[in-house]
Amino acid sequence: MKCSVCKKPAIIKLRAHNVSFCEKCLQDFVKRRVREAINNFKMITKDDKILVAVSGGKDSLAVWEILHNMGYDVDGFHIDLGIDSYSELSTEKSIEFSKKLDRKLIIADVRDHFDGKNIFEIAKKAGRVTCSVCGLIKRYLMNSSAYKGGYTVLVTGHNLDDESAALFGNLMFWRDNYLASQYPVLPATDPKLIRKVKPLIYLTEREIAAYNIVKGIDYIYDECPFAEGATSIFMKKELNNIEKKSPGMKLKLLKGFFRRHDVFKELSENSNNLETNHYCSVCGFPTMADDKCAYCRLIDKVKG
Hints:
alpha/beta
């Protein structure tokens, strides 16, 4: 098998694009796709101060490395969830990579915010599903840390598989509000809310994993132990079965949705527009509630 570009021995075949790549051309392809996403959706500029949400996994480390090598001012932010060896290894990989890039890494430990409790103990105390509580905490800490650090953009490592699976699930259940807000760029609708972007939306997990291997990026391979049985994983598996029959389907699905996103414009404006006159009485960040935000109410419930 030869590279479709330079005719050297290829290391990977991408059926969705009907191409094969050698190591160098694969790297060029990945960077080109990231650049295309950034340009198409006007995600970031060289004047932005960028914070990447880093888990220690392949996606977040790859996007951090790519943006850094493209010349962007980009630091990392990692949340230690306190999940025994999994969190220890995730934090270790994140720290090692920050040293490799010689970039700043901000670390937040949930146990410092919730009286020493890890994410499982927090969810149990609150009487909620672990993934739901984890999402709430991550969103709050990412935004508050970015705001306090003076960052203008928050980058996450959501890839094509993540986004197409989320879209598939939202369409299956017609979750209008989620469809309205699912977009590669979530604008800052308040001075205390940081713009969020997803530069990896055109790349699959397999393509990113291959990129990490050829670049020698050491990442954590294990999935979060609480992810087992998640609806998103089921949706990914179903979409992968369809992708085998129709290569490129996931990319077509996502791009088609983005082209038609104006249909949800009114919904999008309503779902993303926080009433800025409502601010949490404890932390001061925007909230739809009249008094405390969901994060501060969670702290009260766990500590109470």
